[in-house]
Amino acid sequence: MIILRYISGWKVSFRRIEMKKHNSNMGLLLAIIYFAFISLGLPDGILGTAWPSIRSDLSLPLELMGILTTLLFACSFISSVVSGHILNKFGTAKVTFISCLMTGIALLGYAVSPNFIWLALFTFPLGLGQGAVDSGLNSFVAENYSSRHMNWVHCFWGFGASIGPLIMTYALTGFGSWRKGYGSISIIQLFLAVLLCISLIKGIWYVKHNTSQNMNQSTNINKLGLSSKTTQFMAITQFFLYTGIEFSMSAWISSVLIESRGVPMKLAGYVVTIYYFSIMIGRIFSGIIVNKLGNMNMIRGGLILAIFGGAIINFSDNIIIMFLGITIFGIGLAPLYPCLMHETPNRFLKEVSRKLIGYQVGAACVGGSIISAGIGVILSNFSLELIFEIIILLLCIYFVINEILNMKFLHMKTKD
To answer: Looking at the predicted structure, is the pLDDT value of residue 57 above 90?
Structure first.
């Protein structure tokens, strides 16, 4: 009996050591993922900041930036769409490491490019790497961490996207060189690649994560429903709509305020800053409360807030009230993307969700450009003021699709 007690005590101690090691690795890995999302956001927007200097330095026409952005968008889209198949074959750790290495080398290539041809060539690995990292990390966080962290990592992406142009601006004003800006950001990306390589060697990514909740939810749902093409298409469409709504508001709000409502240009310029700042702050608060309220309640509440904020801007000409409306609108949008992304593994089997998240990220890339361009055509032919009615309509469509999907999956759980 004494021997059995010692053996039992030894087993308990061993389990505690393993649990501490597991928690330590999960925390370390989460810190790396947060840093990865910051670095993922860094290159976004720096081309626009650097382009006047690049154009002057390399004697390029203005319109060539459009070719680079189109190439970047196309490569990111392709990489996102195929990422699910690649992730299932090679795993998130290897794909993320190779992708970060690609983006770091591509940004370094930008820094030393002697002409436009080299810029275009380095755009291919930059776009492919960004698309794969985005899809891979979103999938990994959705499968292995709570919705709180999904909201916060997207907040960190916003932080990276905000400081990227600041780094480039400092390089331009402090050193007079866009090359130093790209070089600095490439060093950050390559440092991340080194961290990922070390984590890969140490086996941190291979720790058995606590995904029982997600797996149990997935396995309890009828598999035929999970593989329905219609259901998957609706889940993809939500991301297409979301980025279209988010980008369209940022793209057209200043024009509406200046040209249609007579708001001074300086004040109108603050609106977009307030808009994205409210999304970032909204994701911080969403992360605090989402584990208590749940993804679906956060999405519903966010949609209601966004519609309310859009209505405030639509019906008021007072600048203070319009600023309040755009703030409410941004806070409302904040939880939609991360909460819906986190819900994908809960609704679909793991093999399906990884591929689906890649399609969702790809649809998000497409939605921002197609919807905003389509809205631009409507506004130019009718009235700038229609922007708010169109966005509210798109939010209502999003709401209907979300409720249809929610009822469908609730029905499957009950049936199962």
So the answer is: yes
* 8 A C-beta contact, residue 156 and residue 37: yes
Q: Under a CB-based contact definition with an 8 Å cutoff, are residues 244 and 367 in contact? A: yes
155/71 Cα distance (integer angstroms): 26
What are the residues whose beta carbons fall under 8 Å from the beta carbon of 28, sequence distance 6 or more? 199, 204
The pLDDT, as a whole number, for residue 2 is: 56
Mean pLDDT score of the chain? 85
Query: Which pLDDT value is given to residue 331?
Result: 96
pLDDT digits (tens, 9 = 90+) for 123-139: 999 999 999 988 889 98
Task: Tell me which CATH code domain 215-415 carries.
Answer: 1.20.1250.20
Instruction: Report the distance separating Cα 11 and Cα 29, nearest Å.
Output: 27
Report domain extents, the chain: 18-205, 215-415
Structure tokens at 223: 């598999």
Q: What is the mean pLDDT of residues 365-373?
A: 86
Q: What residue type is assigned to position 296 of the chain?
A: M
Q: Which residues contact 80 (CB under 8 A, 6 or more apart)?
A: 131, 132, 134, 135, 358, 359, 361, 362, 365
CA–CA–CA angle 93, 139, 68 (5° rounding)? 85
CATH class of the domain defined by 18-205? mainly alpha
Fold equal for 18-205 and 215-415: yes
Quick check: 377 pLDDT over 70? yes
